[in-house]
Amino acid sequence: MPISIHTIVQGLLLLLYAWFCYLMWEITRQYIPYDTDVAFLRIKQEYISRDYYRWAFFLHVYTSILVLPAGFTQFSKRLRLQLPTLHRRAGYLYLVITLFLAGPGGLIIGIHANGGWSSQLAFCLLAGLWIWFSAKAWIAARNKDWDKHRNFMIRSFALALSAITLRVWKFGIVAVFEPRPMDVYRLVAWLGWVLNLIIAEWIIFKFHKK
Fold first, then answer.
1. Which residue has the higher pLDDT, 72 or 133?
2. Which of 30, 130, 166, 201 is the most buried (most CB within 10 A)?
């Protein structure tokens, strides 16, 4: 039986996603073992000496890497039907990390983001909405309101994907326009997640239409 175009596209997208997850792991690996003078932290030395910032940063970095694979499993119909226990446990892992570790850590990091108030507002909104959507998804699941649970998980995961899309936008903008670094940072601080959320709302609309 020939393989359909749809199956091929799905396979290619899965490989692309796995590759992006690997790249995110490579970014995380820079901070293992524990190091406060490497990569991004070299420009945050004025804050890394503060206990609350240091705890927030490393909690966010060390736990966020689990969010991408755990969240991705929630959108596999085959996994949900054939391995419901794995679906629930992966979803629980995703929500616990988002609500209590990576999300709050990201909010604290956002308060001290480079680029002034515009970038700080963008990253704080990103973290706040990520926590809020995840909390609503959890509440909906506990109430067995599966449509609402699905919709809020779509929104939550769209914001989780900003870890990838922010860097993709940054690479593309720098390659094409060669702007000043801080201008790029202010732009991708918004572009990295707002478009994701718009696409998420379109997907939710399509579900409602069906």
1. 133
2. 130
